[in-house]
Amino acid sequence: MSYSVCLFGDSVAKGVIFDSIRRKYRVIKDCFAASMETQEHLRVTNYSKFGCTITKGRELLERHAAELSSYDFVVFEFGGNDCDFDWHAIAENPDGEHLAKTPIAVFEEEYRKAVRFTRENGGTPVLLSLPPIDAHRYFNWFTQGENAENILRWLGDIDRIYRWHEMYNLAVCRVAMEEHVLLLDISSRFLERSHYEELLCEDGIHPNEKGHELIFASLREAAEKASHRMPQLSPRLALA
Description:
Layout: E1 4-9, H1 11-14, E2 16-19, E3 24-27, H2 32-40, E4 43-46, H3 54-63, E5 73-77, H4 87-92, H5 104-120, E6 125-128, H6 135-142, H7 148-155, H8 160-178, E7 182-184, H9 187-191, H10 209-229
Parallel strand pairs: 1-4, 1-5, 5-6, 6-7
Antiparallel strand pairs: 2-3
Helix pairs in contact: 2-10, 3-5, 5-8
Protein name: SGNH/GDSL hydrolase family protein
GO molecular function: phosphatidylcholine lysophospholipase activity
Domain SGNH hydrolase-type esterase: 7-214
């Protein structure tokens, strides 16, 4: 039997990588979402967009409200853009107050609204945790052409970028727990690697081809474990 999945997310879910040879971003053919479709015989409708935040994602979700009940699962992957800052503005004014694209409290509330809206419209929400980033590589990436010293002064230390990103990942986990939504963990498989940065692109934030292979493997493993914990949902969660 074939099951259907609707995916809302950002460039990670879209399958965007940075091509170091062509020096530009592009969508890879074998991203984790495409692998779910070709290898696991799932029907995947991917509404993910480059640069998408949870607020924009919820607007997109509402535009597709009538479809939600027709899918077995509605999967969300957000947070990477939400936690980011206007680094140019920080470089220009390191002593000023600067907010993330989506402040953490707003992020959490918008995610809850997306989950509840999905259920109210007959869908079954599933959340994905976030792949980790390489803070130092990302810092070197976004400070190109900027006053890196000013940005570092505002940050305090480069590793704050990693901690800030992880705070949003924890918010995703908290929403899943408190809203009683299935969370598929793709973070741990990266973090258990000695050099997980090898699974990231030059920019330090987008998983590369190997990273997408690991995300796909993580989803298979997480779904298998979920089906064992909640047999009433099996085989619908058994992607493998």
